[in-house]
Amino acid sequence: MAFIKLYREKLKENYQFLDSIFKPRGIHWGVVSKMLCGNEIYLKEIIALGVREIHDSRASNLRKIKALDPEIQTVYIKPPAKRSIESIVRYADVSFNTEIYTIKLLSKEAQKQNKTHNIIIMIEMGDLREGVMGEELIEFYGNVLSLPNIEIRGIGTNLNCLSGVMPTQDKLIQLSLYKQLIEAKFNIHIPWVSGGTSVAVPLILKNARPMAVNHFRIGEALFFGKDLFNGETIEGMHHDVFKLYSEIIEITEKPDTPTGELGENVAGHTFSVDKAEDLGSTSLRAILDVGLLDMQPQYINPEDEGITIIDASSDMLVIDISNSKRNYKVGDLVSFNLRYMGALYLLNSDYIEKKIG
Q1: 279-295 pLDDT tens trace
Q2: CA-CA distance, 85 to 59, in Å (whole number)?
């Protein structure tokens, strides 16, 4: 069975690195756990770091977090669905919102549960995912202020997740101006201005963050140490907190070109012969016990630079080991570094064992 392994010390060092960036600057931050898909083994590792605020996009995952530690502040990080309102009020201390209709439902449910539910009002700032349009924000905010059992914790925005719009200094200054406008209009104080996700970390490192932006939601930087502006690993961080290990179940020298009438494979791809010299060539191929049911090949990278990924079917991954310096045998493990989406697929699979290293 293929398995994914979390390396505890690397996770701890990444967490401490980030905390050393945020705390001296007076920034509140929470860990985004949605990639862990509610896996309790890994959630316990997050909690053991000393994390006191965890963000997720599934109410069922927030329920697990509250069961593990009721004192952790839980944040639901997408606009709630009508049919999830009861669970969100019960298990999320804070939720991100963009619709008056939904906030009214949260207000009624919070009254039923005799709770105060906190919300962040998300503002559309160009990435074209969730968010209230800027010209409607003042009226929207005013309508929410009067709702019982609802407390506005702050405002926020989401960038880079859909259209790839980057959280530049200008974007965060614009978010700060919204804070000033609202505070002046309603004579109130906004505690949180949530400036985004891991993609904003390079701005913080360059001290290019407007001081009013005081809250961030961090997942990818914690688990992969990645600078999302340039794709490189942030100096002082680990990119390999998670690794995939998969067992070789066959090794055979085979032709590089399939024989027979060609059609689409199970993934909808059609093989084509591009070069005449490909005809008659062979390679040493290995088959691994992991496939499209559990991962997508474009999001995993073999640690052995001599390995090339050929393709995958539902339950098997084919690799070319011809150029490897290792003498692989059936039963050996092949290790892979992961991109964010690679880990997400694997962690969502019940067929991939989860281990701690």
Answers
A1: 678 999 999 999 999 99
A2: 9
Helix, strand or coil, per DSSP, at residue 351? coil
CATH number given to 242-356: 2.40.37
Residue 101 phi, psi (nearest 5) = -55, -45
Which class is domain 8-224?
Answer: alpha beta
Residues of 236-272 as b/e, b for ≥16 C-beta within 10 angstroms? ebbbbbbbbbbbbeebeeeebeeeeeeeeeeeeeeee
Q: Name the residue ranges covered by the structural domains of the chain.
A: 8-224, 242-356
Active site residues: 34
Strand ranges for 107-241 from DSSP E: 117-122, 150-156, 192-194, 215-218
Give pLDDT tens digits for 8-24.
999 999 999 999 999 99
Six-digit token string for 229: 């502006």
Contact predicate 194/216, CB 8 Å: yes
Question: For 56, phi and psi rounded to 5 degrees?
Answer: -155, 165
